[in-house]
Write a structure and sequence with these properties.
The chain is an alpha/beta fold and 681 residues long. It has 21 helices and 24 strands. Helix 7 crosses helix 19, helix 10 packs antiparallel against helix 11 and helix 11 packs antiparallel against helix 12.
Length: 681
C-alpha cells in the first residue's frame, strides 16, 4: 500500500476526523481535499472493525478519477475497491457490491437508489456504511440527491437509531446561498453543516503553507467596448416587433427588453398562457419570439453567423409544420427576411468585438513554442459547439497550436456527450494531446489538471461557488483567470459581487468556527428538526397534488396542434423512469422518426424510434419508443410536449413529477398476459 504523505495544513484539517468526528473539510480547489480524505479512509480501514467506506461524487467522470488517481493507488493493495457509475453493470446489483467491498466509489444517485430499492441484490442500508465521504458537499441542500441521502441519516439520528456512518464532507466553497449579509450567510453555512451533521474545519495554524502551496491565479478583466452598430441585431428586433404587433398582446402583458434573459422568461410564460387559453396564435408567436431572443443572446456572445444559423435551423425544422395562418405568417416573415439576415450576418464590419478580445486572450497564453493548457467556460452546450467551430477555423489560433475539444454534460441528444466521450476528452486533455477544453459548468468541479494555466469565463452569469470553482482550475504557477466581458456589462458586475460573496463566505465560516461546541450542537439540532418537519410537509403537499384529479379525468393534447390524443389513465410508469402509454389506440396518433441513439446500454430497456404527432402537418416531437425486457415496445412520452385538460382548465408541466394526477406502475405481467391473449385470439 502506497504511503500517503500530507502537508501540515492537511494534517491540521483531518485531525478531528481521525477521532471519529463528523467534519466538512474546507480547502481551496487544488488544496488536496481528496488526498486528505484518502488518508482518513486509510486510517479508518486500519482501525475500525468491519469498516466499509463509501465515497460519493456528483459527476460520473469523478468515479473513475478518484478510483484511478487517489483511492485505488493508496488503498487498493489491501482493500477491495469498487467504482460504480451509471456506465457500469455493478449498479444493477449494488447491494451485493456493497457486501463484497471495503471501499465503494459511486455517484450519489446510485447509493440513493439502493437505499430506496427493496430488491435484496440492489438494496443497501446506511448502517452498512462506517465512513461516508461526500465530495463537493456544498451540493447537500434542498432536494439534491446528496441531501436526500443525508435526510435519511438525519431522521435516523433524531430518532436515536444507530449505528450511523461517520461523515466526511469536502468542499472548496459552501457559498452564501445568494445572501449578501453576514447573518444570512452564517445561516446558509449552518444549514449545510446541519444537513451534513458536521462541523466545518479549515487550515488555521498552517494557513501560510496552504497559500504557498495553492497560489491563486492572476485575475484580469478583458473588457470589450460595445460595438458601435449592430444592424443584424437591429433587424432581428424589428422582426420581433412585427410578431408582437401581429399577436395582439393582451393589455395586461408587458414584455421586458428583448435580447435578455428576462424577456425569455416573459415569453415562456406567454406561451404557457396561450396553451392554457386555447389561443394557438399567442402560444406559437411566443414560441417563435423565444427563438429570436435566443438569436439575440447568441449575437451578443458569439458570431452573428452562429445566431443566424440557430434561427435558420429552427425554421428548417418548422417548415414542414405549418398548420394555420399563424404558422404561415411566422414562416413567411422569416423567409422574406432570410437573405437580408444572412447578408448582415456575413458583414465582418459589424462582427461581435467579444470574439476578437477572446482571440487576444487566448493568444496571450498560447503560442507555437509555449506549453499551455486552458479551459474556456461558456454557458450553454450550443455555445460550446459554436466556439469550437470558431477556434477550429481561426488561422491565428491554429498557428498558436491550440488543439481544442468540447466538454459538456452527459445525456441524450446531439449536443450532449456520452460518459465515455467525457472520459476520453478528459484523458486526452490530461495527457496533452488536447490543450484547450471548451466547457460548460461540468468542468468547474473535480477536474484534476494541475498544469492548467489559463481559465477564461466567457458570457457567464453565475454564483460565487461556480466562480471560485472555475478559478481553481488554473493551478499552475503564474496562471491566469480572465473574464471577457463588455464594459459596464452584467458579467463584470456579477463577477465583482461574487468576489464580495467569496469574502463573506470566509467571514461566515469563521463566525461559525468561533461558536462553542454546545451552541453549535444546539443550532444544528434545531435546524435538522426544522428541515425534517418541512420535508414531511412538502412530501404531504406533493402527495395531495398527485391525487388532486383522477387520471381518467385528464386529457392529454399535443402542445403544438392541441389535438386530444390520450387520457391520464393511459399512462403507466416503468422503473420510476419511463412514462409510457399502454393504450393500443394511441399508435393511431403518431408516426415514427429516426432511431434514438443514447450511447449506452441499460439492464431492462433500450430506446427505439422517435415518435411525433401525425395530425396533418403538426409533426410535434412527443418522445420515443422504449423496448422493455425485449418484449414490450411502448411509446415513452415527454410531458413537456403535451398540454393537459383538467376539470379546472388547461395546464402544462415541465416534468411528470409536476402533474396533478397519480400515474400507476406498469405491470409487465399483465401486459404479457394481454399480449398472449391477443395472439391466441
Amino acid at each position: 500500500m502506497a504511503d500517503i504523505e500530507l502537508y501540515s495544513y492537511q494534517e491540521e484539517v483531518v485531525e478531528r476526523a481521525l477521532t471519529g468526528e463528523n467534519i466538512i473539510i474546507w480547502l481551496p480547489t487544488g488544496g488536496g481535499k481528496t488526498r486528505a480524505a484518502v488518508y482518513v479512509a486509510k486510517k479508518h480501514l486500519e482501525t475500525k472493525a468491519n469498516a466499509k467506506v463509501v465515497v460519493l461524487v456528483n459527476k460520473v467522470h469523478l468515479v473513475d478519477q478518484h478510483y484511478k488517481k487517489e483511492f485505488g493507488p493508496h488503498l487498493g493493495d489491501r482493500n477491495r475497491i469498487s467504482p460504480v457509475s451509471g456506465e457500469s453493470n455493478e449498479k444493477d446489483f449494488f447491494g451485493l457490491v456493497m457486501q463484497n467491498s471495503d471501499v465503494v466509489i459511486c455517484t450519489a444517485q446510485i447509493l440513493y437508489n439502493a437505499l430506496t430499492d427493496t430488491e435484496e441484490s440492489k438494496h443497501a442500508e446506511l448502517s452498512d456504511i462506517t465512513l461516508l465521504i461526500i465530495d463537493e458537499c456544498h451540493h447537500t441542500h434542498k432536494e439534491s440527491v446528496y441531501n436526500k441521502i443525508m435526510r435519511v441519516y438525519v431522521e435516523k439520528k433524531l430518532k436515536r437509531e444507530r449505528p450511523l456512518p461517520q461523515i466526511l464532507g469536502l468542499t472548496a466553497s459552501p457559498g452564501t446561498g445568494g445572501s449578501k449579509t453576514l447573518d444570512k450567510a452564517v445561516e446558509h453555512v449552518l444549514q449545510i453543516c446541519a444537513n451534513l451533521d458536521s462541523a466545518i474545519v479549515s487550515a488555521k495554524t498552517y494557513e501560510p503553507e496552504l497559500k504557498q502551496k495553492v497560489p491563486r491565479p492572476v485575475k484580469r478583466f478583458d473588457i470589450v467596448e460595445k460595438r458601435p452598430k449592430d444592424p443584424f441585431g437591429d433587424h432581428l428586433k424589428w422582426m420581433m416587433k412585427l410578431i408582437q404587433e401581429y399577436m395582439n398582446l393582451p393589455p395586461d402583458v408587458k414584455l421586458r427588453e428583448c435580447g435578455t434573459q428576462e424577456y425569455e422568461a416573459d415569453v415562456v410564460i406567454l406561451e404557457r398562457r396561450g396553451v392554457g387559453e386555447d389561443n394557438r396564435l399567442l402560444a406559437q408567436c411566443a414560441l417563435h419570439l423565444r427563438q429570436y431572443n435566443d438569436a439575440l443572446l447568441i449575437n451578443d456572445t458569439l458570431r452573428m453567423m452562429d445566431a443566424y444559423r440557430t434561427l435558420e435551423q429552427f425554421y428548417i425544422t418548422k417548415n414542414a409544420t405549418a398548420i394555420d395562418g399563424t404558422d404561415y405568417f411566422l414562416l413567411g416573415l422569416f423567409e422574406e427576411n432570410q437573405v437580408e439576415l444572412m447578408n448582415l450576418a456575413s458583414n465582418s464590419d459589424f462582427e461581435n468585438p467579444n470574439m476578437a478580445q477572446l482571440e487576444s486572450t487566448l493568444l496571450r497564453q498560447f503560442g507555437p513554442d509555449v506549453q499551455s493548457r486552458g479551459i474556456l467556460f461558456s454557458k450553454t452546450r450550443k455555445s460550446t459547439h459554436c466556439l469550437k467551430e470558431w477556434v477550429s477555423s481561426n488561422s491565428a489560433l491554429k498557428a498558436a497550436g491550440i488543439r481544442a475539444a468540447i466538454l459538456t454534460g452527459a445525456g441524450n441528444g446531439i449536443t450532449y456527450m456520452t460518459q465515455n466521450e467525457q472520459a476520453d476528452t478528459i484523458r486526452r486533455f490530461r495527457e496533452g494531446s488536447l490543450n484547450l477544453l471548451i466547457s460548460t459548468s461540468v468542468a468547474e468541479e473535480g477536474l484534476d489538471i494541475s498544469e492548467c494555466n489559463l481559465v477564461v469565463r466567457y458570457g457567464l452569469l453565475t454564483n460565487e461557488i461556480a466562480q471560485q470553482q472555475a478559478s481553481g482550475r488554473a493551478r499552475a504557477r503564474d496562471s491566469q483567470y480572465s473574464v471577457v466581458a463588455q464594459a459596464g456589462g452584467r458579467e463584470v458586475r456579477r463577477e465583482l459581487i461574487n468576489e464580495h460573496l467569496e469574502d463573506l463566505t470566509g467571514k461566515a465560516i469563521a463566525h461559525i468556527q468561533r461558536l462553542s461546541s454546545r451552541d453549535f450542537s444546539v443550532k444544528i439540532t434545531e435546524l435538522q428538526t426544522r428541515a425534517v418537519i418541512s420535508s414531511k410537509i412538502e412530501e404531504k403537499k406533493k402527495t395531495e397534488k398527485k391525487s388532486r384529479y383522477l387520471a381518467s379525468n385528464i386529457k392529454l393534447l399535443c402542445r403544438n396542434c392541441f389535438k386530444v390524443v390520450a387520457t391520464g389513465s393511459d399512462i403507466k410508469l416503468i422503473d420510476n423512469t419511463h412514462y409510457i402509454n399502454v393504450n393500443p389506440e394511441f399508435k393511431n396518433h403518431y408516426k415514427f422518426g429516426e432511431q434514438v441513439d443514447i450511447g449506452k446500454s441499460f439492464e431492462d430497456w433500450e430506446p427505439g424510434r422517435i415518435i411525433s404527432c401525425n395530425n396533418g402537418n403538426c409533426n410535434k416531437n412527443w418522445g420515443y419508443e422504449v423496448k422493455y425486457k425485449k418484449v414490450a415496445i411502448l411509446p415513452n412520452m415527454a410531458i413537456k410536449n403535451f398540454a393537459m385538460d383538467t376539470p379546472d382548465g388547461r395546464v402544462t408541466a415541465k416534468k411528470w413529477k409536476d402533474v396533478s394526477f397519480t400515474v400507476e406502475e406498469f405491470s409487465f405481467e399483465e401486459y404479457c398476459k394481454e399480449l398472449l391473449s391477443d395472439m391466441l385470439d
